[in-house]
Write a structure and sequence with these properties.
This protein is of the alpha/beta class and 134 residues long. Helices cover 28% and strands 31% of the residues. The chain has one domain: Hypothetical Protein Aq_1857, Chain: A, CATH 2.60.300.
């Protein structure tokens, strides 16, 4: 029981470093309300990328698994799978309305940048070469 409690406290402490800006949390709540999605959470996940970048995806989800990490950030329930959490600790999720690129969510994750730079300079994990400018 104590070990389980310690694990839960550690998990909660580590995941609370993921933050949603006020604009992002307002946007998620507005979408949930407009679509009448009571009980749904914002799922954030690694959506692929190359050797030198990590791309994130987001979805509204009510299918939460036992292996998922769930927490509340700025009043929004957030769900992250067991693989993606390593890339998202310390991340900030914002909602931006860029006049050129349009409106949307942006994830700034320092851990994703460090994961993509774990290879030697100019050398990719896939065996090719690239320039990492995250």
């Amino acid at each position: 029981m104590l070990e389980e409690l310690d694990t839960k406290i550690i998990t909660e402490t580590e995941t609370q470093a993921i933050s949603l800006s006020t604009a992002a949390s307002d946007a998620v709540r507005n979408i949930l309300t407009e679509r009448n999605l009571e009980g749904y959470a914002l799922r954030v996940y690694v959506a692929g990328g190359g050797c030198c970048s990590v791309n994130f995806g987001m979805a509204l989800d009510n299918n939460i698994r036992d292996v998922d990490t769930t927490f509340e950030a700025n009043g929004v329930k957030v769900v992250v799978d067991e693989v993606s959490i390593d890339y998202l600790r310390g991340a900030t999720i914002d909602f931006v309305n860029d006049p050129v690129r349009g409106a949307g969510f942006a994830v700034d994750s320092p851990r994703a940048k460090s994961h993509s730079h774990e290879h030697a300079e100019g050398e990719c994990a896939c065996g090719g070469s690239c320039s990492c400018n995250n």
